[in-house]
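Structure catalogue
Derive tokens from sequence
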Amino acid sequence: MAGRLSDDEKKKLILFYKENPPLWDGNNAYYKNKQMKETIKAKLKEHFNNKYDNDQLDKSFHSLQTSFMRELKKITQYEESNEKDILLNKWKFMDD
């Protein structure tokens, strides 16, 4: 198993998940279809030339999701606060 994903690989992972909502969107009709999810995850592994196993890719995406939710929470708190003069740093994967 390889080490951690690089920033470029993380962007690639985010894009892949964006294009495959059955992996993350509970409202998707195929979200509960385990066979389809396994097929998509096999494609994901191939997408990374089998450099990472599914467990590592799942953990990396979960970490990115968690960071995204924290960033959204910070933005919401910032927008609701009266301290608009404080500079809000932007998470590097926010646009992705």
